[in-house]
């Protein structure tokens, strides 16, 4: 006669975890909402604004942009095409491998990215309420959550 394993109880989710998940969801939703509004003021979509923001940190190939945004490279190509048509982004050869094209912000693109960043009050204002030590703690906790 085969032995039967006892039923494993369903994992319990405690109220604290549920509240934290809900709060994270609220923060993310408010951030994206404000980001869309800020992007719209520059006649950009949220996706275009996110790509421009990434490129303002450093030029990068489409594949890397797609990895960072967790989307398909073909989607990024279309976004970069539209940003390029607006004069905010340009494609240039990668100095390390001339077969690879990098997307890079133009001077207008950098100005637009800076203006977008400066208009995102929601992301800054709540963090301003925290001390430097609290912000560092939050950063470390978020990194741990993301496995970084």
Automatic annotation (TrEMBL):
Keywords: DNA-binding, Transcription, Transcription regulation. SMART domains: HTH_MARR (SM00347). It holds the Pfam family MarR_2. Residues 17-147 form the HTH marR-type domain. GO terms for biological process: response to stress. One of its GO terms (molecular function) is DNA binding. The keyword Transcription applies. It comes from the Bacteria. The keyword DNA-binding applies. This is MarR family transcriptional regulator.
């Amino acid at each position: 006669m085969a032995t039967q394993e006892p039923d494993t109880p369903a994992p319990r989710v405690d109220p604290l975890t549920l509240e934290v998940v809900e709060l994270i969801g609220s923060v993310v939703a408010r951030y994206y909402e404000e980001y869309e509004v800020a992007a719209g003021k520059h006649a950009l979509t949220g996706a275009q604004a996110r790509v421009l923001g990434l490129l303002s940190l450093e030029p990068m190939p489409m594949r890397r942009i797609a990895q960072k945004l967790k989307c398909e490279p073909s989607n990024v190509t279309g976004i970069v095409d539209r940003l390029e048509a607006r004069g905010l982004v340009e494609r240039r050869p990668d100095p390390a491998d001339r077969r690879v094209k990098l997307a890079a912000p133009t001077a207008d693109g950098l100005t637009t990215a800076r203006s977008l960043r400066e208009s995102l009050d929601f992301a800054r204002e709540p963090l301003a309420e925290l001390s430097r030590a609290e912000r560092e703690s939050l950063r470390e906790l978020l990194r741990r959550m993301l496995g970084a």
